[in-house]
């Protein structure tokens, strides 16, 4: 599986190197209750859906991507989110840094454009330890966020920091986890939590295991507004929204990951709260609406007033 992913990313790198990159603003800001929320772009990378999606035929992938005016080679966003309240700067996830090619690794630049430096980040809430979410913690052997406390679920730390869990399929991720998260652990900068804990005022960590053993959603509720930060619940929106049972070959537990996605889409559609997704097209914020056996993605309305309505 990992070999397929690496081949996919190498091909993506060849494609993107042949194309000129277009400079984009890299951030989008709204107000959510008491919190100022800024979506941050780490960049984009082409992904090859025939190679990485599972529990789905190539024919269905082709059909569903065509309906979204996409192709089976999609340009996936890698997003992170900055929350500001009472002088605290809190990141959700940290991007990929150098690990997946030159079109990613732009999170520090996007952050600086908002007027915040990496040194000003107080806390980083990690959805899971896959390195498109934690790769940006370290660069060239140095901490990118030297003043931040890193929050990770206890089950996630227990899995990725225990070599007994390593298999050939997961070996590269274990090495990257050691390289990117390990220095913060050794420095005493990692704080673990249990599901259900309120990690900051109005921000609760929720059990979303499946994609990884300690995958976490963060539910933000403030002044009647709610947003759920869903990490890697969605990798290919054009396919997994209309067919939430479709999985990806780097789910640690594909069956449970699909159950989590189906359950979350159903709840979000019924209750109408916001979702913030790390791999839906930037800024990755929107609602879902039930349609047939699946769902439609309703992206946030562009707003200069900051409410996204």
Short description:
The protein has 309 residues and is of the alpha+beta class. It has ten helices and 18 strands.
Please write out the topology.
Elements: H1 2-18, E1 27-32, E2 35-48, H2 49-52, E3 53-54, H3 58-67, E4 73-85, E5 88-92, H4 107-113, E6 123-125, H5 131-134, E7 138-139, E8 142-143, E9 149-153, H6 154-160, H7 171-180, H8 182-186, E10 190-193, E11 198-200, E12 203-207, E13 216-222, E14 225-229, H9 237-240, E15 247-248, H10 254-271, E16 274-276, E17 285-291, E18 294-299
Parallel strand pairs: 5-6, 6-9, 9-10, 14-16
Antiparallel strand pairs: 1-2, 2-4, 3-15, 4-5, 7-8, 11-12, 12-13, 13-14, 16-17, 17-18
Key terms for this structure?
309 residues, alpha+beta, Metallo-beta-lactamase, Chain A, 7-stranded mixed β-sheet, globular, disordered N terminus, MBL_superfamily_lactonases
Characterize the structure shown.
The chain is α+β, with helices and mostly antiparallel strands and 309 residues long. It has one domain (2-20, 29-299): Ribonuclease Z/Hydroxyacylglutathione hydrolase-like (Metallo-beta-lactamase, Chain A), CATH 3.60.15.10. Helices cover 28% and strands 30% of the residues. The longest helix is centred in the last third of the chain and has 18 residues, at 254-271. It starts with a helix and ends in a 10-residue tail after the last strand.
User: Ranges with pLDDT <50 over ≥5 residues?
Assistant: 1-7, 9-18
> Main sheet: which strands, in order across?
1-2-4-5-6-9-10
Q: Give the CATH architecture.
A: 4-Layer Sandwich
Number of helices: 10
Instruction: State the CATH superfamily name.
Output: Ribonuclease Z/Hydroxyacylglutathione hydrolase-like
How many individual β-strands?
A: 18
Distance between the termini: 41 Å
Helix-strand category: alpha+beta
CATH topology: Metallo-beta-lactamase, Chain A
Question: What's the level 1 CATH class?
Answer: Alpha Beta
Determine the fraction of residues in helical runs and give it as a percent range.
25-40%
Choose one word for the global shape.
Answer: globular
Average pLDDT reading: 93
The ordered string of helix (H) and strand (E) elements is: HEEHEHEEHEHEEEHHHEEEEEHEHEEE
Task: Name the beta content range.
Answer: 25-35%
Radius of gyration: 18 Å
Count of individual domains: 1
**Largest beta-sheet details:** 7 strands, mixed
């Amino acid at each position: 599986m990992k070999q397929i992913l690496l081949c996919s990313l190498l091909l993506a790198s060849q494609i993107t190197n042949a194309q000129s990159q277009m400079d984009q603003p890299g951030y989008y800001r709204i107000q959510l209750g008491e919190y100022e929320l800024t979506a941050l772009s780490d960049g984009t990378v082409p992904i090859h859906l025939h190679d990485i999606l599972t529990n789905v035929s190539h024919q269905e992938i082709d059909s569903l991507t065509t309906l979204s005016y996409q192709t089976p080679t999609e340009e996936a966003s890698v997003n992170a989110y900055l929350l500001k309240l009472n002088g605290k700067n809190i990141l959700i996830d940290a991007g990929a840094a150098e690990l997946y090619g030159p079109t990613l690794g732009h999170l520090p630049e996007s952050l600086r454009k908002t007027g915040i430096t990496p040194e000003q980040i107080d806390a980083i809430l990690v959805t899971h330890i896959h390195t498109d979410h934690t790769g940006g913690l370290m660069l060239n052997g140095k901490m990118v966020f030297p003043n931040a406390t890193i929050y990770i679920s206890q089950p996630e730390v227990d899995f990725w920091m225990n070599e007994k869990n390593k298999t050939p399929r997961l070996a590269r991720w274990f090495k990257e986890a050691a390289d990117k998260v390990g220095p913060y652990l050794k420095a005493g900068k990692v704080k673990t939590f249990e599901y259900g804990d309120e990690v900051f005022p109005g921000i609760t960590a929720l059990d979303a295991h499946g994609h990884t053993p300690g995958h976490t959603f963060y539910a933000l509720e403030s002044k009647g507004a709610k947003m759920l930060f869903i990490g890697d619940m969605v990798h290919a929106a054009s396919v997994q929204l209309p067919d939430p049972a479709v999985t990806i070959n780097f789910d640690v537990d594909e069956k449970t990951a699909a159950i989590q996605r189906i359950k979350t889409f159903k709840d979000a559609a019924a209750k109408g709260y916001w979702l913030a997704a790390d791999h839906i097209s930037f800024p990755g914020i929107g609602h879902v609406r039930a349609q047939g056996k699946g769902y439609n993605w309703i992206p946030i309305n562009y707003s200069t007033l900051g409410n996204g309505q």
